[in-house]
Design a protein that fits this description.
Chain lengths: 111, 112
């Protein structure tokens, strides 16, 4: 079945640093989504990507849909303490296909 | 705007007891609804989804069942809980199966 490899699994950075994480798949996807989850809450949608090569920003967050349609990355610039959480990628082939989630990247920020 | 509500937020149940978790969506009609389980520190596993009233698709064989008695209501149930049913249960909705899913705040279920 379809699987997403998300890396790194965890990151420990200093406040103000830039962050980069990515997801790769053995299968192609038509949609890539990035979510953020804080403790005790549900994931919140950050960015949705629908086209290969698409680069989309949401404030300090930037995500790209890989040209091969098998990968996506998320960058966070100038990290701040409220960026702490678990970031999930999710891919969808399209039509009635379900979302496939990565295992998450846990971001910890030292002030 | 659309909102999604899940309750209870936390639940502690003994092994063998029944379960009923409820999810409701407001501000939209005929949403697609989903139930996920998330083990500690892990990704999300899709359990059930529904494209309409009374229509339930099961993704994995398990001790749980789902029902959709009303357009914007999705219920996760079990007749007898197992220890392995512990976890964080998330409800989500989307406009269509192709649109992004939006999640509720989840229910933390602990089985003793």
């Amino acid at each position: 079945g379809q699987q997403l490899n998300q890396s790194p699994q965890s990151m420990f950075i200093q406040e103000g640093e830039d962050v980069s994480m990515n997801c790769t798949s053995s299968s192609i996807f038509n949609t890539w989504l990035w979510y953020k989850q804080e403790p005790g809450e549900g994931p919140v949608l950050l960015i949705a990507l629908y086209k290969a090569g698409e680069l989309t920003s949401n404030g300090r967050l930037t995500a790209q849909f890989g040209i091969t349609r098998k990968d996506s990355f998320l960058n966070i610039s100038a990290s701040i303490p409220s960026d702490v959480g678990i970031y999930f990628c999710a891919g969808q082939l399209g039509g009635a296909q379900k979302l496939v989630f990565g295992q998450g990247t846990r971001l910890t920020i030292n002030p | 705007s659309q909102t999604i509500h899940q309750w209870p937020a936390t639940l502690v149940q003994p092994v063998g007891s029944p379960l009923s978790l409820e999810c409701t969506v407001e501000g939209t009609s005929n949403p697609n609804l989903y139930w996920y389980r998330q083990a500690a520190g892990r990704g999300l596993q899709l359990l059930f989804y529904s494209v309409g009233i009374g229509q339930i698709s099961s993704e994995v064989p398990q001790n749980l069942s789902a029902s959709r008695p009303q357009d914007r209501q999705f219920i996760l149930s079990s007749k007898k809980l197992l220890l392995s049913d512990s976890g964080f249960y998330l409800c989500a909705w989307s406009v269509t199966l192709q649109q992004p899913q939006h999640f509720g705040d989840g229910t933390r279920l602990s089985i003793l």
